[in-house]
C-alpha cells in the first residue's frame, strides 16, 4: 500500500463531524464508523469509495444462502463464503500494516487484524439476517452467533474457523494466562469496537514515532466518541507538543490537569509542570 496521506483540512473536518454524529446516533452503524476512520486515514477514499465499500458488503451478503439454519449453520456458511471461497484471513504480518485496521483496505486485500475481519463477518452476516455480534476476548476478537447455550464462536482471523469451547479457552489463556469467564462472551458494543480499532491504530503509530500524524488523528477520533478514557486528552497534549504545537499542547495539558486535580492533586501539579515546560518552548 502507498503511504496513506490524510485528507485536506476541509474534508477532515466534514469526516469528523459525520463520525461524531454517527457515534451519537441512537443506533450507531459500525460499518459507517469504520469507513469514516478509513477516510480520515486515507485521503484517497472519497465518497464514491465509501459507497463502493458498503455496496461490497451488500454484495457479499447476497452470496450467502438464504437463512441456512441455526447459529452453527450461519457460522459455517460465513466460513465457507468468506474464508474458504474468498480467502479472507489474517497472518502475523498483518499486525505490521496500517491498512489492516482500515475497513476499505481489508475489503480490498481480504486481509486484516482480527477485529477488522470480524467487522466484515458481522456486517455481511447482519445484512443477511444472522444473529451475529462481536466478542472482544482478551487479546483476540472473534464473532458469535446465537446466544447462551446455543452460542457458536468463529475466528475470522483463522478464516472463520468454528471454535469449540476448548479453542476459546486456549485463546484467552494464551493472551492473559487466565481462564475464560462467561462475562468475556458478552456482545461487544459497536462504539467499543470502534474504540478498540482506534487503539490498534494508536499502537501501530506508537511503534513508529515518525507517524505521529496517525497517532494524532486516532486520538482525536477517539475523543469524539461519547465515552472514552480521560487520559486520551493527556496523550493528545503530548502529541501536540511533540509535533511542535507547544501552545496547543500546553492548553490541553492545563485542561487535563483540571480533570486530574479532582482525584489526584500531586499528579495534576506534575501535568501543570509539563504545561509550563511546553510554554517555555515558545520563547
Automatic annotation (TrEMBL):
Residues 72-199 form the Protein SirB1 N-terminal domain. It comes from the Bacteria. InterPro entries: SirB1_N. Pfam families: TPR_9, Transglut_core2. PANTHER family: F-BOX ONLY PROTEIN 21, SI:DKEY-261L7.2. Belongs to the UPF0162 family. This is Protein SirB1 N-terminal domain-containing protein. The lineage of its organism: Bacteria, Bacillati, Actinomycetota, Actinomycetes, Kitasatosporales.
